[in-house]
Each structure stands twice: as structure tokens, then as C-alpha cells.
Amino acid sequence: MANQPIRYGIAGLGRSGWNIHANQIRSRSESKLVAVVDPIKERRQEAIDEFSCRAYENFESMLEHGDLDVVVVATPSVDHARNSIAALEAGKHVICEKPMAMNLVEADLMIQTAESYNQHLFIHQNYRFQSIFTHLQEVINSGVLGDLYHIRNYNSNFARRDDWQTLAKNGGGVLNNKCTHNLDMIMQLMGGKVETVMGDLQQIASGGDVEDHVKAFLKADNGCTADMEVTSAQNIATQLPTWILCGTTGTLTNDGKQSTIRWFDPSEAGEVVVVEGAAKDRAYGSSTKPIDWHEKIVPAQGPNIGSFYDNVTAVLQEDAKMYVTPQSVREVLRVMTEIRRGTNFEVPEG
Predict the structure, then answer these.
(1) Which of 11, 60, 160, 227 has the maximal Cβ count within 10 Å?
(2) d(CA 330, CA 324)
(3) What are phi and psi of 60, to 5 degrees?
């Protein structure tokens, strides 16, 4: 496919399909939108008017045409696996919106189908390309925090939602449609395989029958823990930090725009020597010499590694390495399954 336009078809022209994927394709010289499918006539006509593409009412009709290289699956979440597998079997590469699937059985079948038909399966976990994420990676890799032992991620708003993502039959809920990004970033930053998971899901403010409040605790095999809270049911007067990274020699606090990093040099701090016996002045003891703390405030902007679609293009045209593998996203889905376990929002595992 080198030096040839990449011909895309988009299934689903809603918020993700139109605002994200069509918007990306329209801005890329090597990309061409040649087909769309959506049940709403006005949306199909909008795509025809701008892109001069073919438009279909059903997914299978679009797959019958051989001039498609990549199918973007931006249909309701519950259809992601079915649509992706059909496109792969039709000989198309696939970009699948998150969540990847409803359960691990579906995810494994998607991966197996891509391998069997020698097609690429991209999962749109695009937050790995954001500058705030590469910033957090850069700080951890610099060593200034020492060994990372805990991550806290917090996102909140208050919303009484009433759209299709509030229904379980569509694969809705905050865990599926927001926390996929948060968990993906957290798990990449932890640097180990998640072994212990505890979760709590609640429905507080929104309509429908799915959760709008998610709390989870993770522990990886390297000892690093993570505390994630993503909620659409809190109206916080003073916004709490979005990210806190805790290391053995420093701490990063991030508000979404900038990070405050406080750290010390362990070679200058000296050892802590325990003093046995009665505590002096009946106080908590701290006779070790004071820490010489350093502090800097920096923009939350890490290295530019390009965009999700930059990587798609590089994989298809230059045989580059896929940055977000379906296997890594399958691991996120595994952890999501464990977060649900024992709650009122547990879903069948296949």
C-alpha cells in the first residue's frame, strides 16, 4: 500500500465516527473516505456532500465493495466485535472504537480473526498519543521520582445523561466509554502486569441502567498500585488533581494542564536511623537531617509522537510497528472485567 491513498469506510456517523474519525481523514492527504454507513439519511447525505463517497444503510452492503482498505467501526459499543470480525473476514483492515469488545471471548475472536486473515486490527486507544500521557511517561523515565509505587487518577463532573450510552444493551456506562482510556494510560504507566483488582460501580445521577460512577484499585506484579476514580456524579467545588504519581524520591501532581514535581536527591538525604526507647518530648521522632526538597512546575506537554492516524498510516504504508496492539487493549478489557466482578453491573463473559 506504499505511496497509494488509504481508502477508508466509516461505519457509524455519530460523535466518534463523524467528529473524530471523519475529521481525521479529511485532514490527511494520504487518506480518502470512499464509503460510509449509517441508518440516518441526513447523516449519509452530509457525508456524500462533503466527501463524494458512497453511502449505505447497512454494514454488510458496504463490505461487498473491494475498493476499501480500512473499515472504521464506530457503531454502538455492543456491535464492535461483530462488525470488526465481519470486516476482517471481508479482507479489510479495521480501526475499532473503544471499548474493544463486550467480553474477553469477543476480544480473543477479533484478534484470532485478524491473524487468520492477515489483516491489521487497530483499537482506537488514542490517549496514548496525547502530550499529557507522554509527559507522565517522560517524568517517570527520567528517574526524578525514584521507583514509582502508586498512581492516583481522578476525573469528575456531574451529568444527568439520557443518551444511548446509558443503556446496557448498547454497551453503555462510564467504565466502557470513559475508563477504557484512563485504565489504558494507568496500566502503561504502572510498568507491570496487573494482578489484583478491586472495583465498585454505582448508578447515581444518569438515566438508564448502567454505572455513572467507577472506583477501582489495582496492584501490579512489580508492587505498583493505582487508585482510579472516574465519575459523572460529583460536583466538586475545588477540582482535585487529575494525576498524582508517587515515587520513592518524589511526587508529581497534575491538574490536567501543568505538573508540580517535588523531589529530593537520595544521595544527599542520608539514611534514616531508628532511635529506640521513649520518644523525645513525647513527639513523633524525626532526628534525621532535613530533606533538601526541589520543586519545579512544568507544562504537561511531553514528546510529540504523532497521532493515532499517523501510526495507522505508518503501519499500512511503511510496515511500521503498531503502537497500540490489540493484545494490550485486551489486557485493559481483562482488568475491566475484574472491576465489574461482584457488582450489580457484571456482564456475561461470553
Answers:
(1) 11
(2) 11
(3) -65, -35
